[in-house]
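Hello,

Our lab assistant flagged a job as stuck in the queue for most of the afternoon. It eventually completed. Since we weren't sure the result was trustworthy after the delay, we are filing this so someone can double-check. Below is the sequence as submitted and the structure that was eventually returned. Let us know if re-running is recommended.
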Amino acid sequence: MAADAAEEIRGTAHGTAPVPLSVLDLVTVGAGRTATDALRTSVDIARLAESRGFHRYWVAEHHSMPGVASSSPAVILAHLAAHTGRIRLGSGGVMLPNHAPLVIAEQFGTLEAMAPGRVDLGLGRAPGTDGATAAALRRSDRLNEGADDFPQQLAELTRFLDDDFPDGHPYRRIHAVPGPVQATSPGGVQSPHRPPVWLLGSSGFSARLAGMLGLPFAFAHHFSAQNTVPALDLYRETFRPSEVLDAPYALIGVSALATDDEKEARRQVLAAALNMVRLRTGRPGLVPTPEEAEAYDFSPMEREFVDSWNANVIHGTPDEVRAGLDDLQKRTGADELMLTANAHGGDVRLRSYELVADAYGLPTPA
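-- returned structure --
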């Protein structure tokens, strides 16, 4: 196993947190706010996360959703790299079938050059959007074909990252730059780091693949809670030691929102749930205000969805959120918790991470 690679993957728990804590950012845009506002909030949260000892900060890839401004993770990560100095930055994740593997290798090689030793490459095989938008992204309506080819796409991307296509391969003379080829060029010096690859999933497919390849695994508990334990069990059962890891390492994405009082938490998660109702019924929009959500006339079916959705959102006072996160970690055995705070206002999201940090006694800025 490559010790350096494992060290870049495994985090350190701080304060009384049971495992390392990290951040997943969807760059949510609330009604009355702009994408510029949302991106400024992302910088504020990344700086807070770095100063309080969160381990990593990932940005998700979504498309054609007005309330989610994270369509270009690599661009956002470059912006965050310019405003931080230590925290790990990564994609949670890049939806690989939407892109040519060479393009992703080039983008993340560039990010690695900007922030050496701090970049993670999280990969998923879902489109991160609806079928029509996925077809527009991929220039094809054969979407299942793209998902089915994921292992081959992953292998090709890894070859580009390592610059090790075998002799006779049609891509043998093609190089992802920045990348290892620069070290073998006359006078070349290249960073010893390359972004660790993570596999992301919400079912068993990527869990099994990550286990077989000995890669770290991230599970989307925040929208597929019923599959969390089975997927993590499958990952651990199929895990084979690799040059990357000698033992499984799994994080889970968790919807968690802490506020100064419980009533406000309920108001905020109701607004986020209404946003999901609209998304799931083909009416995506900006994240509504809590006032709009409170005035909304939910149908019985919508109310049932909201109750089911919010049952998997850990929310309330800081002590309640801490207790919920502790319980979830015990039930799943997750090696890391990656928190996503979905709310209308950026100030609410920022405050949530601050309250969670305080609840666990995470380090405070000097």
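-- support follow-up --
The delay was a queue issue, not a problem with the job. The result is valid. The mean pLDDT is 93. The CA atoms of residues 101 and 156 lie 7 Å apart.
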